[in-house]
Amino acid sequence: MPRWKRLLNPARRYSIFLAPVLLLVTLLAWSVASPVGSSPDEDFHLASIWCGQGEREGVCEPGATAVEQSVPAPVAGGICYALESSLSAECYEERMDAPVEQMVSTGRGNFTSIYPAGFYWVNSLLVGENVETSVLAMRALNAILVVGVLTALYALLPRSRRNAVALAVTITLIPLGAFLVASINPSGWAIFAALAVFVGLSGFFESEGRRRYALGGVTLVAAFMGTGSRADSAAYVVVAAFSAIFLHWWRPGTASWWRPVRLRWSDLVAPALVLTMAAAFFFASRQSRALSSGNTISAAMEDPTADTPGKLGMGQLLWDNGMNVPSLWAGVFGSWDLGWLDTEMPAFVAVGGLVVFGAIVFTALPHVTRRDGLVLAGILGLLWLLPMVLMFRANAPVGGAVQPRYIMPLMVLLAGVALWRSAVGGRLSRGQLGLMVATLALANSFAMHNNIRRYVTGDDVTGFNLNALPEWWWDSAVSPMVVWLVGSAAFAGFLLAIVSRMGAWDRTPGAGTRAAVPGDEPLTVS
């Protein structure tokens, strides 16, 4: 046996346990790679979390007006370093030192149900006397929840389907996904919720027995995270649910391609609960009305500092936006700045991420069936048309109303649908997998280094050593360089663990799954 196989076999044996641990360590490193207030609109989300369980003495009290609440002084107010990339987070330390007993009235929060309440309620369970400690605990909790749901789905899915979770997450996580999941921004829950609902319901339809019920339960948790975080995420959960329904309930028949298979009552339970939950959260938030009216989320109060563009001609607006919408897709991989759009990423991050994403999805296309192709076309159409509609109604160009994080759940879902059947009929070569690992590991390392540098000294200071003359860092013995090295090594280890499992993929449906249905053959060109 070749030496590399002897080394790989033990790693493969334990990789199913190592992969989620290493992914969690990566996200925890990202969670301490930036200060309190670093995620988009975090001043809004901080106050919303402190008031997530309603009024509580010393935590959230009545404000000066009916639409305001009083929160501790370190929680209220703007972020001094936001939008100024040359400023380190040193200026924020004075605010963190303000007494928590001092209550400040603010209208900047989810006090009129702009967002769904689920995300804020869960995170408010960790509100404590020290704001920094509370925020770090919340970031860790959000990372644990996301990793936990994805790990549960991976473990419960048949072997032939696990790649849909593993690869879809791997090729879309860096850098925007990692930054947001390890934050207190509701988008962190939303990013992978649609993917989790799709693979969860798909596994639910294909499985029998206890595996089926367990998948249904995990899917409901994922649906709660998606619908309880953002109204647009609730809409994406509906897209994911109907994608799974279409792929598994409508099968090619002898008389008609569209003949539905015979349904069982148990098939209706999980999707019905998911769709009901999505509808309830969507219509309960003002964010949904902002979307339907054509206003941006910032217009609904998320970012009142956003510039309002002048009136543009209808034809010019449609033409310019139609050409430039793909820049939003590229922004998922780092072509847009992180944080408050003030943390620039190295070119390698965006280029490497885009190349890997395109290569993996393109490799999966030979396994796509007719119905898969229709779903993929629908998701791709949404990725193009949804930003176009929102920007048109807001009379805004690309970059003025819609950000990459708003459409990122659809990008992840696109990858998941494309990869759903890709383990059947072929695998990536060792060279391809090695190139993917190297590219993504370097992209994560470069992105985290730039992110830490921006807050430790500001981006007007350059250099490899993050420990040199820091202007800001946590009150901890763990240095910036240690965080960067641990986060870089952990993600590289996660990638190797995932790759080592790929050789164990089964080419046939696993135990506990329903038999394959005739007509699931890939698309062919004659």
From TrEMBL:
Transmembrane residue ranges: 136-157, 164-182, 188-205, 212-228, 234-251, 263-284, 345-365, 374-394, 406-424, 433-452, 472-499
Tagged with keyword Methyltransferase: no
Keyword match Manganese: no
Keywords noted in UniProt: Membrane, Transmembrane, Transmembrane helix
Name assigned to this protein: Putative membrane protein DUF2142
Annotated organism of origin: Georgenia soli
Highest classification ranks of the organism: Bacteria, Bacillati, Actinomycetota, Actinomycetes, Micrococcales
